[in-house]
Amino acid sequence: MAAEFVLEHSPEEHLARCLDRIEREDGRINAFIELNPRASEEVREAPHGRLRGMVVGVKSNINVRGLRATCASRTLENYVSPYDAVVVERLRREGAVVVGMTNMDEFACGSSGETSFFGPTRNPVAEDRIPGGSSSGSAAAVAAGFADAALGSDTGGSIRNPASHCGVVGVKPTYGLVPRHGLIDLAMSLDQIGPITRDVRTAALLLEVIAGRSREASMLNASPEPYSQRLTPDLSGVRVGFAREFEEFTAPEILGVVKRSLRRLEAQGAEVVEVELPSLEKALPTYYLIVFVEFFSATRRYDGRRYGHRIEEVCGAEVLRRILLGSYISQKEYAGRYYRRALQFRSLIRRELLEALEKVDVLAGPTTPKLPHRLGEELSPLEMYAYDLLTVPANLAGIPAGVVPAGRAGGIPVGLQVHAKPLQEQLMLNVMLAAEGRE
Amino acid sequence: MNREEVKEQAERVLRELAEHLGEIELEETYNVIQVEGLREDAAPEVDPEFVEAALSIAPRRDERYYVAEAGAWV
Amino acid sequence: MKVRIGFEIHEQLATRTKLFCTSPADYRDAEPNTNVCEICLGMPGAKPMGVNAEAVEGAVAIALMLNCEIVQEPVYILRKHYDYPDLPSGYQRTSMPIGRNGELAGVGIWEVHLEEDPGKYDPVTGKVDYNRSGVPLVEIVTAPDITSPEEARAFMRELVKVLQYSRRVRREGGTMRVDVNVSIEDGARVEIKNINSIRGLYRALKFEITRQKNLRRRGKAVRRETRAYIEEQMITRSMRTKETAEDYRYIPDPDLPPLRITPELVERIRRELPEAPHQKLARFVEQYRISRDDAWAITSEPEMADAFEQVCTQVEPARAAAFFRHIIKKTLNYHNLSFAESGIRVEDIVQVLRAISEGRLSQQAGELVMRRVVEGERAAEVLREMSRVDEQSLVSAVEQAIHQNPGAVEDYRRGKQEAINYLVGQVMRITKGRADAARALELLRERLS
Known about the structure:
The complex is a heterotrimer of chains A (439), B (74) and C (449). Chain A has helices spanning 11-29, 39-45, 86-93, 136-143, 160-166, 200-210, 227-230, 244-249, 252-267, 283-298, 311-314, 317-329, 332-335, 339-359, 381-385, 392-397, 425-435; strands at residues 32-35, 55-59, 97-102, 149-154, 169-172, 192-197, 239-243, 271-275, 362-366, 401-409, 412-420. The longest helix of chain A is centred in the last third of the chain and has 21 residues, at 339-359. Chain A has a single domain (11-435), classed as Amidase signature (AS) enzymes, CATH 3.90.1300. Helix content of chain A is 38%, strand content 15%. In chain A, strands 1-3-2-4-6-5-10-11-9-7-8 form an eleven-stranded mixed beta sheet, sandwiched between helices. By secondary structure, chain B is an alpha+beta fold. Chain B has a domain at 44-69. In chain B, 38% of the residues lie in helices and 9% in strands. Chain B has helices spanning 3-21, 48-56; strands spanning 38-39, 61-62, 65-67. In chain B, strands 2-3 form a two-stranded antiparallel sheet. The two termini of chain B are 21 Å apart. Chain C folds into three domains: 3-175 and 242-268, no CATH class; 275-386, no CATH class; 391-448, Arc Repressor Mutant, subunit A. Chain C is 42% helix and 18% strand. Chains in contact: A-B, A-C, B-C.
């Protein structure tokens, strides 16, 4: 079992090929906001670690020293980061090279990749469609072969949603497993950094490099595990839960692909069991009310004094909407009606998910309720939020969830989403490996 | 979209989300996983390279000081 | 008219690193904006490290010394949002109460909690220095139990003493900030900010109470507002005329798990708690058989009390106590210094006291020696210098030596140079060693040439 990244060519040659593809195709796809001008130097000096030569795109809300962490917003268009995020340090230490900063929804506020100040990203697999978001550029870069892997962030599905739409693998780890120091906040109690890759094995390898406690006030005292070495597609004795409510909310063409994928898990020895998540429909309002308040708090530093622009004066409509709502509902007199009530529902949803995971080992189901819309199609805010219905529960409960390509519906990729108990990343990755299969 | 339109739309969004949520009586969950959050006080550290890089991105400064005005965001 | 006064007192805790990062907590000698990292600068993406355990223990120790109950439930760190250039993230982190329901000198202590200091902003030049940003502060909130500026002053002196005794706060001075709430006869509560000395506190209260009483006499209502104390003019001035209180939109900081202050930790801190000022005072009276007034003066500062105990191992306590209370305190007051700042050492005090008891030094001269010690000299040198005989006595000692030793004088005159050393020795014998030997030699040569 390989515990390191394997290349066909020399690291220099491999990077050159990636850069060449970016140059030819990214004008159309728009996966990157900025390329790393020192990438070629860095690849020559890269240490001989487990990721030696791996070309990685980094979402523009993660600090990479010397590159701009714009969050795809005019607010931070001039913010050249003076420090490396913990995950970036860890990637570099193992020999990976940051090729550039990827496009995203502005401040990760979006599920389509269309709200970037630097223009929307195309889905490389179905170019008239959105790639999903908010880690739109990260998923697109991996799907288009611009990079071997990318880092994304996932607050309510921002890794899993574009991974599903673009036909790649995406993992949102247990809350707190991967240090967030250096990740620019959307909602601090929900945000997690995770890998986006073309296969499960690479995702496992990347995760074991970036996971593990750092000096930040981590919510978790976990050590990294050698996931990639312990990967196995053998699911004998594994109970896979499928919630009845998934069917209620999901488009039939997606359900068809997901169910075929579940058959594949059964073929690997798993037992598929039906479970209930009666409060699933409460997850979306719960999630958004929490996001508004935490995002409002997180954006107070963009007051125009240190980074050039005051956020409310230069941001797009969705970001402004969230700030206004966060400001409103965090006022003393309204906090009980909205924010605190959302936190109470969070307790309910978390309890329900953990109870369901007492009866089974993992939950498997669809990632998004609908297929990605056509680029430029106008959606109301609530229509946009509806994309997140099936991804927000994992963040609210703090549990790990990963997406693996399950097949296509009308030529558009569909991902199978796997949830596991806190810190059961290994089992989740094993199920994803078993489901992995190219059609 | 102008600020007024965004505000109107925001009000609609909030109304619908709140209606959808309904009533509940439960303890709030702030942190999904709880651990010890203390750190031993030890010898302090400063990274001079960081200090210079951080200062260099300040939009306004006077030698080693940031320059700012009092104002309000709300 | 019944006056009610309450305080919010902020003091920096003496830790090595800041509350949420490893930047130095001591920024006094640092160039502006060098004592910082991405965390205390609140840069995009920066996350707090775990809470500095030393700061938490400091807050617990201070709460215990103020007779508080330590809270059992998880202590959340809240974000208090407001917009000011000294606050790099737009919110200040402040803990929920760590101690509650305490009492000091008859004044209720509502709560003790931790928070982070903001940076320093100069509204005139617009300059911001974030070196101070993130330094741990303890905040003490009192009940409005104080009824006059005199009481306020006495209470603050006592509180400062307790904080010093805790040995958990910065001793450099000048870091304490006090916000004061004043109301008269259940009228509106006025908050006064920007007070940083006990004298300032007293003057601000004097002014503010007069102002409020005058308003009432003229039949006008006192507005609920925040006022700033203007040190130079000794007045308070309205800062914020907003009718409604500012909404800080408090939320528990999602980046930080709540603190759990275990009974074991509280017990350990309680066991290691330094003696409180009133405990030390009682012990001094009992152990050293000195008066309450002497003990009160000596225990006004922990460092002075420590020095007293060391002096008492070598000098009789009653004499030491009188010297501390009358001579040392007076000298410190004269120079407006604390004992800790004064540079006085135990050996200085012991040497002066010995000189006095042996009759080599008068009480008044003793005070003079202490003054010179405070000015940077050591007592031993000063005593040696002071005890030298004056020129006139030296001249007569020289005369006496010449008169009594004709043989040596003869030898010297015949060219035997060593003979003069013998004569210098005789001068030293006559003056009991208090002569300046070089000057004696000079005088002998003059006289014999």
